[in-house]
Amino acid sequence: MAGSAASAERVCVVLLTGLGDVVHGLPLVNALKRQDPGRRITWVAEPMPAQLLAGHPAVDDVVVFEKRRGAAGVRDLWRALRRRRFDLTLNLNIYFKSIWPTAFSRAPVRLGFDRARSRDGVWLAANRHIGPGPRRHTQDLFLEFLERLGVPAEPLEWRLAPTAAERAAQAAFFAPLEGRPVAAIVPASANAKKDWSAEGYAAVVDALEHDFGLRTMLVGGPGGREAAIARAVLERASARPVWALGDGVRRVLWLLEASRLVVAPDTGPVHMARAMDVPVVGLYGHTNPWRVGPYRKFDDLWVDTYTDPGEPPDPSRADPRLGRMERITPRDVLDRVERALARYPAREPALGEGRRP
């Protein structure tokens, strides 16, 4: 299989969603590009995470699969891929929707997960498979592809940063804060069971503003549920955090990149922040942080009520634990904030610099 990677000049990466998974795919394409800078990499993704790949130095081409358009979206995907030729396709997804781009790629070598670790017959679309293994952190699962291909994974690189054009918007947004360090709070995830309480976030906002000297900022997308949670935090807090909810994954990226630290539950922006080396105070009760938390970093900042005291870390556990987010207290979060400020020096974003647009 290693020979297939060495001769693959045109690679198709199928990793459609979610946002955190796409972040975890970046070390893979960086390693492939590092091994052969002339290799052309095409990434198939759904519209929202596709924004994150714009201008990435290891991704030459992004094909957007509009799955929500049903048969029309599948037809457009087929038309887009039939104009391209690939030597190797890597299907990092395990769900049925990934069958379409994997099959449409027509690559002679199509590598995917084995039957035991995929669903919905996805393994049938591949003609080579990653060998059986335990459930692991998502990043570790993806790195298995590099191991199978004989491509060195280290050093792990995400190379995720604002573009030069985005730096101007970033500088303009943060200018009114006059250099005051910012704590970005992401109060909503895609699953309400992963969320913490608005009352808890409000207490943290007040302490960060009044006791820690940090300016707080509410970060998220434009969805109604996210906005409702953020408004509930505003109503309960005596301080007034900056309202930074809005459209665009790229906007979230440059907001996080300029922050002193991030407080968030299990959600995609956690992995964006980690990729940019921004300290993350992660709140985990419903999901297992050893499986879905920031990869190899900031575990000293987790608030982990998923793992019972004395229970050894087990990244293979994927079962949700109900009622555990409610065990998190504002004091738990503030203790981790204090630790983050003490252990992780402030970073200065490279204002005025950035990747190609």
What does this structure look like?
With 357 residues, this protein is of the alpha/beta class. The chain is built from 13 helices and twelve strands. The chain has a six-stranded parallel sheet, sandwiched between helices. It has a six-stranded parallel sheet with strand order 9-8-7-10-11-12, sandwiched between helices. The protein starts with a helix and ends in a 14-residue tail after the last helix.
How much strand?
A: 5-15%
Main sheet properties: 6 strands, parallel
- Chain-averaged pLDDT: 93
Specify the oligomeric state.
single chain
Low-confidence stretches: 350-357
Elements, N to C (H/E): HEHEHEHEHEEHHEHEHEHEHEHEH
Number of strands: 12
The gross shape turns out to be: globular
Query: For the CA atoms, what is the radius of gyration?
Result: 21 Å
- Structural class of the helices, strands and pairings? alpha/beta
Report the helical percentage. 25-40%
Tally of helical segments: 13
End-to-end C-alpha gap: 35 Å
Side-by-side strand order of the widest sheet: 3-2-1-4-5-6
Helices and strands in order:
Elements: H1 2-7, E1 10-14, H2 19-35, E2 40-45, H3 47-50, E3 61-64, H4 71-82, E4 88-91, H5 99-105, E5 109-112, E6 128-129, H6 138-149, H7 164-174, E7 182-185, H8 198-210, E8 215-220, H9 224-236, E9 242-245, H10 249-257, E10 261-265, H11 268-275, E11 280-284, H12 289-292, E12 303-304, H13 330-343
Parallel strand pairs: 1-2, 1-4, 2-3, 4-5, 5-6, 7-8, 7-10, 8-9, 10-11, 11-12
